[in-house]
Each structure stands twice: as structure tokens, then as C-alpha cells.
Design goal:
Bound molecules: iron/sulfur cluster
Oligomer: single chain
Structural class: alpha+beta
Number of strands: 22
Distance between the termini: 20 Å
Shape: globular
Radius of gyration: 21 Å
Strand order of the largest sheet: 1-2-3-6-5-15
Helix content: 25-40%
């Protein structure tokens, strides 16, 4: 789960970065810290969630030297450091820059890219080259520096997992081609595979041109007519840049529910994966994951569902042993853990808006494995909530309100006012 913060966070502690459109985009970064109740907060973008062991070490150093000794995973596969002294901003930026985690100061908050975590590991196509190319193109585009920290790119290997996350621009691998989706539209454009990253950037730049007047931060915020104009603009640009190879628009409905990789071994032990209870990792857990990565594929992949995939290859007994060790350290190594699917925002005491300590409450209510994920929020903002179908538990002045969410639809189930046992029972019933 994510250690989240409000989208419109107040009180930024600015140390640089691109100019803000209208001053409303207060998404934190590493150069622009956010002031939370437990100290300053930095969000480190990790495109595709992919970290080398060396970069993971740099984050470990940063969390230990400047932060509260924990690393928090976000719903976009990024890392948050909390409890920072605001005076550390310069030293933190220096450390991350030296590790290659801050390749462009102007683009640091625009590098929001999620990618299918198992790409290339279980028979699906690898995405590494497209990820690197897209990140490089974003960092090389002067226009892209003004993308908001909320704008999201997704690279899907064809299985539909990150396609379901409702990114602003999604590239889907499809044989020798890529499909380009803009916003949540069911219509996609087919482009030659090698042109995919360029087409994704082109779509983001078309969005920025269209958003200039409306002030929208995301594609879904554009009025319908303007959104249609963006699609027409992108189509014309594709025809101009890749000619006849830009196929006609076609229908490919967006998956409504994402299926995260279940913890355990994958693809005959090409990789192993763990989930992270409430998305919080201690320094010791992070160190153990990094050491495991260094011994095998030298890489960690942070998933948008607060899990971590460690690519191998592993011999079968090595995978089992590595999972046992990670499980003993408190990480989730099998889908039958009671913690599977349980998430919560940062809540009290880290966030002043929270009406209670939702992480503690989520822990108290952990029970049988539920069919649906559950997400606890300390207030109606629901920072870092899941997508698709899930159970929403939000603290209100009247009690804990439980709802069943399916996409945009929210069906209230109960409001619980009478203590932890009743709350746990109601949440378990809603998830069943
Ligand atoms: S209490 Fe509200 S504002 Fe604070 S982290 Fe939770 S959902 Fe976000």
C-alpha cells in the first residue's frame, strides 16, 4: 500500500523544478518536498518501477540518512521518503542525482511511467528498451517539463494489467506493433512497435496544447469535445510522422480491473515476487531485497500494487529459499496471506487531514483473505486508492463508511460506529 498524500498538497518546500501551471499542481517530488505532519516528504519517480541494485542502495542510504527509516511504495511504483528534515533537500537531490535517479531537474515530476512488472519474465514481451526510450524522450522534451505530476504514462505488455490503471497515455505491446490509447478511450491507434515511445510523447504533447486553455492536469479532465480534438490531432501527427504505417483507429476496450502479479515464483522461476504490507518497508527489508537482486538479476521492479518483483533467473530451490527468507523478514510471499489486498493511506499521525490511524485499524481488521481488495482512507480524499473493483473504507465524523466501488460507481454498504470487532466483521463481509 501507499504512503499517500493529497493530490493538492499545500505548503511545498521548493528547491527548484519546473514552473507550476496556475500554482495548483502541488505533487511532491525530490526537488519540491511536501510538508506533512511527520516532517517533509519526497516522492522519487522510478519509471516503470525498475531499479538497479545500485539505485536501490542509494534509496536505502537516503531513507536512513535523511528520512524516518522506512521506504513507502506508491500506487505508481514510485518511492516516498517521509519524516525528512526540510533542510536536507539539497543533499538529498545530490545523492539521487549521483545515483542517476534524477536525470533531469526540469522533468523530475513528469517521469510518471508505470509498466507491466512481469514483462519479459513469464513469456510476455520485454519492455525495457521502450521504457528507457520513453523516459529519455520525456526528459528531452521541453514541452513535457510542464506535464503535471499527476499525468501518467503506462506501458503494457499486452496482458492488460497497467492498461486498466486509467493512465493518460497507454502503450500496449501487440506483436510487431504498439497500440496507443489516449485516456480511457476504447479507441486505440496502431503504430509500428519502434515508433511507440515517440507516439506516446506526441500524444502527451498534443494533450498539453489542448490543455493550455482549460488548465486540465489529466486527459480525463478535458471537456469531451477537446478530448476528441486531441485524438484527431494525434491521428494527424501519426500519419504525418509514420505515414501509411499508422493504421486506422480501432476498438480495444480498456480492461476495467487490473490483476496484479500474485506473490510467489513466476515463469519457472525467472523471477519471484513479494507484496509489502501497507506498502511500508523497513531499511532491513529493503536491504534484503536489494541483496537478493544483486545476487540474481541485479534489478528490482516496484509494482503499482505495492509489491516488488525480483527478476532472476533462479534455480527452483534458490527461488524457494529466497522467498522463505523474504517471508521471514515480514514480506508477503504467497497469495493466501491475510495481508493480501489490504491497503491504507498514511492516515494519522502522518497526515493532518486524517480522522484516525487507518493503518493501525487496517492491521487490527486483517482477517480471512478477501475476494476484493480493501483500501482504508483517513478522509474522503482517498489518496492512493486502487482502481477497478475494490472495497472502500473511509473514516467520516459519523463512523467508518464501507462502500463497494466498481470503476466510477460507489455503492454504500454500511457505516460502522461500534468498535473494532464490528468493523473487522463488516469489512470481511464486504470483501467476501
Ligand atoms: S487522511 Fe486523507 S489526505 Fe491524508 S493521506 Fe489519507 S486520504 Fe490522503
Amino acid at each position: 500500500m501507499l504512503a499517500a498524500m493529497p493530490d493538492s498538497a499545500p505548503s511545498p518546500l521548493s528547491a527548484g523544478g519546473p514552473a507550476l501551471r496556475g500554482g495548483g499542481d502541488a505533487c511532491p517530488g525530490t526537488l519540491r518536498l511536501h510538508r506533512a505532519d511527520d516532517g517533509a516528504l519526497a516522492r522519487v519517480r522510478v519509471p516503470g518501477g525498475v531499479l538497479s541494485a545500485d539505485r536501490a542502495d542509494a534509496l536505502l542510504t537516503a531513507a536512513g540518512r535523511f528520512g524516518d527509516g522506512e521506504l513507502h511504495l506508491t500506487s505508481r511504483g514510485n518511492v516516498q521518503l517521509r519524516g525528512l528534515d526540510a533542510a536536507c533537500a539539497g543533499a538529498l537531490a545530490e545523492l539521487l542525482t549521483a545515483a542517476g535517479l534524477l536525470p533531469s531537474a526540469a522533468h523530475e515530476r513528469a517521469r510518471n511511467i508505470v509498466a507491466s512488472p512481469l514483462a519479459g519474465l513469464d513469456g510476455s514481451p520485454a519492455l525495457g528498451h521502450r521504457l528507457a526510450e520513453l523516459d529519455g524522450l520525456v526528459c528531452g522534451s521541453a514541452a513535457a517539463a510542464s506535464l503535471s505530476g499527476r499525468f501518467l504514462f503506462a506501458l503494457d505488455d499486452g496482458r492488460g494489467d497497467v492498461d486498466a490503471l486509467g493512465a493518460d497515455v497507454t502503450l500496449i505491446a501487440a506483436g510487431d506493433s504498439c497500440l496507443l490509447r489516449i485516456g480511457a478511450e476504447d479507441e486505440v491507434f496502431r503504430v509500428p512497435g519502434g515508433e511507440g515511445p515517440r507516439a506516446a510523447l506526441l500524444a502527451a504533447e498534443a494533450f498539453l496544447r489542448a490543455a493550455r486553455d482549460s488548465g486540465a492536469w489529466r486527459v480525463k479532465d478535458l471537456p469531451d469535445g477537446v478530448r476528441a480534438g486531441v485524438r484527431a490531432d494525434v491521428r494527424a501527427e501519426l500519419v504525418r510522422t509514420v505515414g501509411a504505417a499508422a493504421g486506422p483507429a480501432m476498438r480495444r476496450p480498456r480492461p476495467r480491473t487490473a490483476t496484479p502479479p500474485a506473490p510467489g515464483p513466476y515463469g519457472s522461476t525467472n523471477a519471484i515476487g513479494v507484496d509489502v504490507p501497507l506498502g511500508r518497508l523497513t531499511l532491513a527489508q529493503w536491504r534484503l531485497l536489494t541483496e537478493t537482486a544483486r545476487r540474481y538479476g541485479n534489478e528490482l521492479r516496484l509494482t503499482p500494487w505495492r509489491g516488488i518483483v525480483v527478476p532472476g533467473p533462479f534455480a527452483r530451490d534458490e527461488a524457494a529459499e529466497a522467498l522463505r527468507t523474504l517471508g521471514a523478514a515480514g514480506l508477503i510471499i504467497a497469495p493466501d496471506s491475510p495481508w493480501t489486498g489490504v491497503g491504507a493511506c498514511i492516515g494519522h499521525p502522518g497526515c493532518a487531514k486524517s480522522l484516525s490511524d487507518v493503518r493501525a485499524e487496517a492491521g487490527t481488521a486483517v482477517g480471512p483473505v478477501g475476494r476484493l481488495p480493501v483500501y482504508w482512507s483517513g478522509c474522503e480524499r482517498r489518496c492512493g486508492h486502487p482502481h477497478g473493483e475494490w472495497i472502500d473504507v473511509v473514516v467520516t465524523p459519523d463512523g467508518h463508511r464501507i462502500s463497494h466501488v466498481r470503476g466510477e460507481r460507489r455503492d454504500p454498504q454500511a457505516t460502522v460506529r461500534n468498535g473494532p470487532a464490528a468493523l473487522a466483521a463488516a469489512v470481511a463481509a464486504a470483501r467476501a
